[in-house]
């Protein structure tokens, strides 16, 4: 018996029956992608950690964040959330050597790097690419009373 396709509910003048708003199946592919060398970008803020695996040319192969791993609000900035997100991003990729770029001031920086080291990937270098202002923004004008 053929399974019926669920219909999307219409909002305003959106066509009924459009399948754009419905996610069928899982977001991640289960097949493994094999590359010899890649770049792992870790962006760690106080509320979230985003891990992106790219090839040398910068094309995204896999990504994950603490938010997609069901960590919400402040819990997304914890080291455990970063650890989970990093493991989730690395899982579908079979990579031999990688460069790691770490950006941001968050707590997940070290935890993400620890997971990458433990996964058996040979690291060529680890670089901190946090943007630092040379002189910062112009301060607001002096307050007049």
TrEMBL record:
Main subcellular location: plastid
Cellular component terms per the entry's GO annotation: chloroplast; ribonucleoprotein complex; ribosome
Lineage, highest ranks first: Eukaryota, Viridiplantae, Streptophyta, Embryophyta, Tracheophyta
Biological process according to GO: translation
Protein name: Small ribosomal subunit protein uS11c
GO molecular-function terms, A-Z: rRNA binding; structural constituent of ribosome
Classification via Pfam families: Ribosomal_S11
Family indicated by similarity: Belongs to the universal ribosomal protein uS11 family.
Quaternary structure and interacting proteins, as annotated: Part of the 30S ribosomal subunit.
Keywords per UniProt: Chloroplast, Plastid, Ribonucleoprotein, Ribosomal protein, RNA-binding, rRNA-binding
Keyword Ubl conjugation listed: no
Gene3D superfamilies, alphabetized: Ribosomal protein S11 (3.30.420.80)
PANTHER family associated with the record: 40S RIBOSOMAL PROTEIN S14/30S RIBOSOMAL PROTEIN S11
Compartments where found: Plastid, Chloroplast
Ribonucleoprotein among keywords: yes
């Amino acid at each position: 018996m053929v399974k019926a396709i669920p219909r999307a509910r219409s909002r305003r003048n959106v066509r009924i029956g459009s399948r754009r708003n419905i996610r069928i199946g899982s977001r991640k592919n289960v097949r493994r992608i094999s590359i010899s060398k890649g770049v792992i970008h870790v962006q760690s803020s106080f509320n979230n950690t985003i891990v992106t695996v790219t090839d040398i040319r910068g094309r995204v192969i896999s990504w994950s964040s603490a938010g997609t791993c069901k960590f919400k609000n402040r819990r997304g900035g914890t080291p455990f959330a970063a650890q989970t997100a990093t493991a989730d991003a690395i899982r579908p990729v079979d990579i031999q050597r990688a460069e790691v770029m770490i950006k941001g001031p968050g707590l997940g920086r070290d935890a993400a790097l620890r997971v990458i080291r433990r996964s058996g990937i040979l690291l060529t270098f680890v670089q901190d690419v946090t943007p630092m202002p040379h002189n910062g923004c112009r301060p607001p004008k002096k307050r007049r009373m």
